[in-house]
Specification:
flat, Alpha-Beta Plaits, 6 strands, 361 residues, alpha+beta, 11% strand, two-stranded antiparallel sheet
């Protein structure tokens, strides 16, 4: 038995079953076979990387309108995808809980998602360009441009793609969001469909209603508020409704807006909110209890919370200090008002560490 590995990558082990102890020559043969397999894996990966770069570059050209339509069609045909005389559908696949955007962990997570999407596309038999260009729209997912013939159904294609992702270990609606734009009939309009898919993904990535896939008609008010997120009148409305809470945070050096946002992002579920902030529920209840106790001294704060749920949360990124609240640094604990001794959970093992002085779970 020998390992199949190269350049820090390990793909498995090569095992030779024998009735008796194999001679030295057989061991050498086994090791050379493992080296050959590893070399083939490296070559295949490098070839795949070149193809991925070509697809991503082509998708980026479509998103940015940086290349003539005729050139885009020719390059797509060279990659095995025919875009002329096809109905085109823009799709974005994003994780509900995005991995860190920088570093080896974030890159590995993006590659893993891209691998799963490409596998799902092949399994469904779809003709599509897939690439890691969602960052151009401010996201961290995978972008696809699906080419459908006249007999193909866009709903059926999205359903099969979601099912294939679920079989690959990425549950559509729970682990990842599959968002789609409208179907267009010319390559000139493909950019619009891709932009719509990115908007739908932005509006639904934190929704509490898991579905196999999302379209424009699914986002409704949430999508409208997202499209108007840069309008100064909407920003003024959100700051006015959250004014009491923002004023209290400014006077006391806290950041209860971050606590409120995480609570709303998790569908007003305290257990999920505590998990998202990597604290125990008791620590979250302590902070929330202190906030409720002080609400009597802060007129309007309790009234502002439901409005935040309907407006600020759905509009997204309108609060003046939008904070993800995933990292429990000492300064963050002081701003939010969590107990000073609270420490983060052990995310890798899934076990809880000491939550405060003398407190364990």
């Amino acid at each position: 038995m020998t390992s199949v590995e190269a350049r820090g990558n390990r793909w498995g082990r090569l095992v030779l079953l024998c009735d008796q102890e194999p001679p030295a020559r057989t061991r050498v043969l086994l090791e050379r076979a493992a080296s050959t397999i590893a070399l083939n894996q490296l070559v295949a990966r490098d070839s795949s990387s070149v193809e991925r770069q070509a697809r991503s570059s082509l998708l980026l050209s479509i998103v940015n309108h940086s290349a003539p339509t005729r050139d885009v069609a020719l390059r797509a045909r060279g990659l095995g995808v025919v875009l002329e005389q096809r109905r085109l559908l823009g799709v974005v696949v994003r994780r509900r809980r995005p991995a860190p955007g920088a570093g080896a962990g974030g890159n590995a997570s993006r590659r893993e998602l891209l691998d799963a999407v490409e596998t799902a596309v092949r399994e469904c038999g779809l003709a599509a360009l897939a690439g890691d260009v969602d960052e151009a729209a401010g996201g961290t997912g995978v972008t696809l441009l699906v080419a459908l013939d006249e007999s193909g159904s866009d709903e059926a294609a999205l359903g099969s793609l979601s099912a294939a992702l679920t079989r690959a270990g990425h549950r559509a609606g729970s682990d990842v969001v599959v968002a789609a734009g409208s179907v267009v009939r010319t390559l000139d309009l493909a950019r619009r469909s891709l932009a719509e898919a990115a908007q739908v993904a932005d509006a639904t990535v934190h929704t509490a209603e898991p579905r196999p896939f999302y379209r424009l008609h699914d986002v409704r008010l949430r999508g409208l508020l997202y499209l108007l997120r840069d309008d100064v009148r909407l920003q003024t409305f959100v700051e006015r409704e959250l004014g009491p809470l923002l004023s209290y945070d400014q006077r006391h050096g806290t950041n209860h807006v971050a606590l409120l946002e995480t609570y709303l992002v998790e569908g007003r579920n305290k257990r999920r909110a505590a998990d998202a902030m990597s604290v125990s529920r008791s620590a979250l209840y302590t902070a929330a209890g202190a906030d409720r106790a002080g609400a009597r001294r802060r007129p309007g704060v309790e009234r502002a919370a439901p409005v935040a749920a309907r407006g600020a949360h759905r509009a997204g990124r309108h609060a003046r200090r939008r904070t993800r609240a995933h990292r429990l640094t000492p300064s963050w604990r002081r701003r939010v008002g969590l107990p000073a001794g609270t420490r983060a959970l052990n995310d890798r093992s899934g076990t809880r560490s000491t939550l405060g002085p003398g407190t364990t779970t």
